[in-house]
């Protein structure tokens, strides 16, 4: 099949500073797997689309046949969003951004603390399921939020990281306390990976 579930880049129990093992297992092994399976099913009769990357499919979403477009938005978005989510967390994460990304954060938002506040505000402003994002939009850092599995790539933006605020991402440990989950998420954020993708996107 065209798309495959990527392996978690660390053991499921290694992000306990923010997310419990069972949540990680269900989130990756069932939720993300379902997006991949459903995306492949939607593209089963579309050999030309199967050769594209997930980023291409989302960037060109308006060219996808209308009969399957919403399935690609939901499941292709789900696949892209979660693939990014796993790599932007690390058992050795936390701390503060460095290098060019840190400079851009300071010049755009004032300081790192303000970035964190704005990501939390976006997370809490999202009613129901969705994502709070740091993206590059026309080369500039921007904080935004999207509903369901809508990807910022569909809006021509480059997501640097997103905090998944679907209840499946946090409910077992945090129940309705989304703000506590977002606060804890900074303990596992992988600034090294995010800084590298920022440098690549800017070059
Ligand atoms: Mn999720």
Structure overview:
This protein has helices spanning 21-42, 47-50, 54-59, 66-87, 99-109, 112-125, 171-174, 178-185, 191-202, and strands at residues 130-137, 140-147, 158-164. With 203 residues, it is mainly alpha-helical. The protein has two domains: 21-87, Fe,Mn superoxide dismutase (SOD) domain (Helix Hairpins); 99-202, minor pseudopilin epsh fold, CATH 3.55.40. α5 crosses α9 (191-202) and α6 runs antiparallel to α8 (178-185). The chain is globular and about 50 Å long. The mean pLDDT is 97.
What keyword list fits this structure?
203 residues; mainly alpha; Helix Hairpins; minor pseudopilin epsh fold; 2 domains; 3-stranded antiparallel β-sheet; 9 helices; 3 strands; 51% helix; globular; binds manganese (III) ion
Q: Tell me the domain tally.
A: 2
Instruction: Tell me what portion of residues adopts beta-strand conformation.
Output: 5-15%
Bound molecules: manganese (III) ion
Helix content class: 40-55%
| Main sheet strand line-up | 2-1-3
CATH topology of the largest domain: minor pseudopilin epsh fold
Average pLDDT works out at 97
Give me the count of strands: 3
Q: How would you sum up the major sheet?
A: 3 strands, antiparallel
SSE pattern, N- to C-terminal: HHHHHHEEEHHH
Q: Give the structural class.
A: mainly alpha
Task: Output the radius of gyration.
Answer: 16 Å
CATH homologous superfamily (4th level) name of the largest domain: Iron/manganese superoxide dismutase, C-terminal domain
């Amino acid at each position: 099949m065209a798309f495959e579930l990527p392996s978690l880049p660390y053991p499921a129990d290694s992000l306990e500073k923010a997310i419990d093992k069972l949540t990680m297992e269900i989130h990756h092994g069932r939720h993300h797997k379902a997006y991949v399976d459903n995306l492949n099913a939607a593209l089963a009769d579309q050999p030309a689309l199967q050769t594209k990357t997930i980023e291409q499919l989302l960037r060109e979403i308006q060219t996808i046949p209308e009969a399957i477009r919403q399935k690609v938005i939901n499941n292709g978005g789900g696949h892209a969003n979660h693939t990014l989510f796993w790599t932007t967390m690390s058992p050795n994460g936390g701390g503060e951004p460095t290098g060019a990304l840190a400079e851009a954060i300071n010049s755009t938002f004032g300081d790192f603390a303000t970035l964190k506040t704005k990501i939390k505000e976006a997370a809490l402003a999202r009613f129901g399921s969705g994502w709070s994002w740091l993206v590059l939009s026309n080369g500039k850092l921007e904080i935004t939020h999207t509903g369901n599995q809508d990807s910022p790539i569909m809006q021509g933006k480059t997501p640097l990281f997103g905090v998944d605020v679907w209840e499946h991402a946090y409910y077992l440990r945090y129940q309705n306390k989304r703000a506590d989950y977002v606060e804890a998420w900074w303990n596992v954020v992988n600034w090294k990976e995010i800084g590298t993708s920022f440098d690549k996107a800017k070059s």
